[in-house]
Specification:
Strand 1 and strand 2 form a beta hairpin. 34% of the residues are buried. The model has no long low-confidence stretch (mean pLDDT 93). This protein starts with 10 loop residues before the first helix and ends with a helix. The chain is elongated, with a radius of gyration of 24 Å. The protein has 16 helices and 7 strands. The protein folds into 2 domains: 221 residues, Orthogonal Bundle (Endonuclease III, domain 1), CATH 1.10.340.30; 130 residues, Nucleoside Triphosphate Pyrophosphohydrolase, CATH 3.90.79. By secondary structure, it is of the alpha+beta class. Helix content is 43%, strand content 15%. Helix 3 packs antiparallel against helix 9. Strands 1, 2, 3, 4, 5, 6 and 7 form a 7-stranded mixed β-sheet that branches. The longest helix has 16 residues.
Length: 363
């Protein structure tokens, strides 16, 4: 258990290791409060390598809190396109607006005040406070929980808030006041690069190898203990790429709920046969000329899985109707209409690319 383990011994070897092995990351080059905040929100649920180009584009387009607060929603969502979990960026904008109104446009140098902002929890508040302001408070994420569970051979369930609180309290006691930033980043880095989440840890590279209990007992694969989440709900969908020359059909999702306010391809519940799909298109007051069956695709959200099949449907002259559909130029959709990555398997049939894929090919 972490309470019975001498955590003080982790500090110096960890700091020495980090100062010799830290990755060069764009948000580390200039760790202003705003840049730390943006990076930490982006890194939630997303790999570092995927975040890098998004971070560059986002901070170039929205270089400060005022720009974020005033950004039009569709531009904001377009900058986030492909990162997923869009409420993250909506919450950021809401917090930025609060900062403009109540904090003179600055992130407060106060852990408790940071916690009051929308979308900022204990981990993000700890990261901003320690990395940007050098305040000695812990920042405990999944990487940190894993490395502490292993070094101390602690089999507590890390999904419980009480366990996270316990680890935060234990780290607070040993955190060096003059090296809070390095200490927190080093814990994260160790979990990302050495004591990794998937696969065997690289114990020979670990600064804690001489006193790690999981290594001594050869039980790393049992730690951390993490209670299983409820199984995801399966939803079947049929996705339609409806085209008339270079025009395609999009539909704006509702302002609340999953993928709120984003643009999607028209879709129907269930897996429709070709005849059912043609009937559905006709019910939308469109005149199908040709239909082509597409491959199946799957997209996983935190609580639901979409199992999709698709059709490209050529129609005779798109005309405005009252079904909530938008008729846009395919090239225009790439620049101006944020389409979630959930539909990424089908965007190739309209000759557009989403998120990082677009920039990787074009730049």
């Amino acid at each position: 258990m972490v309470e019975n383990f001498n955590l003080q011994q982790i500090v110096e070897p960890l700091l020495d290791w980090f100062r010799g092995n830290a990755r060069a990351l764009p948000w580390r080059e200039e760790p202003t409060p705003y840049r730390v905040w943006v990076s930490e929100i982006m890194l939630q649920q997303t790999r570092v390598e995927a975040v890098k180009p998004y971070f560059h584009r986002f901070t170039a387009a929205l270089p400060d809190i005022q720009a974020l607060a005033e950004c039009e929603e569709e531009k904001l969502l377009k900058l986030w396109e492909g990162l997923g979990y869009y409420n993250r960026v909506r919450n950021m904008q809401s917090a930025a607006q609060t900062l403009m109104q109540e904090y003179q446009g600055e992130l407060p140098a106060d852990y408790q005040e940071l916690l009051k902002l929308k979308g900022i929890g204990h981990y993000t508040a700890g990261a901003i406070a320690s990395i940007a302001y050098k305040i000695p408070v812990p920042a405990v994420d999944g990487n940190v929980l894993r490395v502490i569970a292993r070094v101390a051979n602690d089999n507590s369930d890390i999904m419980k808030q009480s366990v996270r609180n316990k680890v935060e309290a234990a780290l607070q006691k040993v955190m060096p006041e003059d090296a809070a930033s390095d200490f927190n980043q080093a814990l994260m880095e160790l979990g990302a690069m050495v004591c990794v989440p998937n696969g065997a840890p690289q114990c020979e590279k670990c600064p804690w190898q001489n006193f790690c209990e999981a290594r001594r007992l050869d039980c790393w694969n049992c730690l951390p203990v993490k209670s299983k989440a409820k199984p995801r709900r399966i939803e079947e969908k049929t996705v339609f790429i409806i085209r008339d020359g270079e025009k395609i059909v999009l539909h704006k999702r509702p302002s609340k709920g999953l993928l709120a306010g984003l643009y999607e391809f028209p879709n129907a519940e269930g897996h429709l046969s070709e005849q059912e799909a043609l009937l559905w298109v006709k019910e939308q007051k469109l005149s199908p000329i040709r239909i082509q069956k597409l491959e199946n695709a799957k997209h996983i959200f935190s609580h639901v899985e979409w199992h999709m099949t698709g059709y490209v449907v050529r129609v005779d002259e798109l005309a405005e109707n009252k079904s909530g559909m938008l008729f846009v130029e395919a090239a225009d959709s790439q620049e101006n209409y944020p389409i979630p990555a959930a539909f990424g398997a089908y965007t190739k049939y309209m000759n557009i690319r989403l998120g990082n894929e677009k920039y990787t090919i074009e730049e």
